[in-house]
Specification:
Shape: globular
Radius of gyration: 14 Å
Structural class: mainly alpha
Helix content: 40-55%
Number of helices: 4
Strand order of the largest sheet: 1-2
Distance between the termini: 41 Å
């Protein structure tokens, strides 16, 4: 009997990108509202100009907390791969 784990397809997609040579992937683990995703990703990429991927992800998350973005939303993103 075969089955799947909820969210398993995300990890397959992430693994495919990493296997193809992508340095890092920032992925949502579940569906998020477009406006909030745009804000988070814009902040992430703006922060990336100042440092590495992991620092940018951490700073974007801190900014989301400071702006009172719902924990349900901000915990929906995960970083995979190289940090710089």
């Amino acid at each position: 009997m075969t089955g799947s784990i909820a969210g398993e397809e995300h990890f397959g997609l992430v693994a495919s990108f990493l296997a193809a040579g992508t340095q890092a992937v920032l992925a949502s683990l579940w569906q998020v509202a477009d406006d909030e995703a745009i804000g988070f990703m814009s902040d992430f990429y703006g922060q990336k100009c100042n440092g590495d991927y992991l620092s940018a992800f951490s700073e974007a998350t801190r900014n989301a907390i400071a702006n009172h973005v719902s924990p349900l939303f901000r915990s929906g993103f995960a970083f995979f791969g190289r940090t710089n």
